[in-house]
Amino acid sequence: MDRRINLQEELVDLAGSSYRVYFQPPEGTQIRYPCIVCGRAGVDSKYANNHVYRFTQQYQITVITREFDCPLPKEILEHFPMCRIDRSFVSDNMYHHVLTLFY
After folding, report:
1. Over the stretch 34-78, which tens digit does the pLDDT of each residue have?
2. How far is the C-alpha of 29 from the C-alpha of 100, rounded, in Å?
3. For the chain, which end, N or C, has fewer CB atoms within 10 Å of the first or last residue's CB respectively?
């Protein structure tokens, strides 16, 4: 199975039924909150002998909610070992918690 689909399923399981999970939603998509928006953000490549020997996809995960101290970002950090919180900000009275995940 595709790793991206596995990631989306794991996020759905972590978030439960109250959150929707969107993967790179196209422009104009009607997003319903609270939600998780994730997308590809780059790669981490390790080289040896002029060849790539390890390739890890990087994802940006944004948890968007009305709750100031939403527990979901911490749960995501605890679930995925190669994850970090990059920043948090408020936009349109919604709290955005942005994480970077290597998966």
Report:
1. 999 999 998 888 888 888 878 889 999 999 999 999 999 999 999
2. 23
3. N
Q: Domain containing 39 — which CATH number? A: 3.30.2000.30
Cβ neighbour number for residue 77 with a 10 Å cutoff: 14
Alpha-carbon span 74 to 50, nearest angstrom: 38
Given a cut of 70, is residue 1 above it in pLDDT?
no
| Residue with the two structure tokens 């994480």 | 99
Q: Are 99 and 85 in contact (CB under 8 A)?
A: yes
* Boundaries of domain holding 59: 3-102
Q: Whole-model pTM?
A: 0.88
| Residue bearing tokens 């399981």 | 13
Structural domain total, the chain: 1
Over residues 74-94, the mean pLDDT reads 96
End-to-end CA distance of the chain: 14
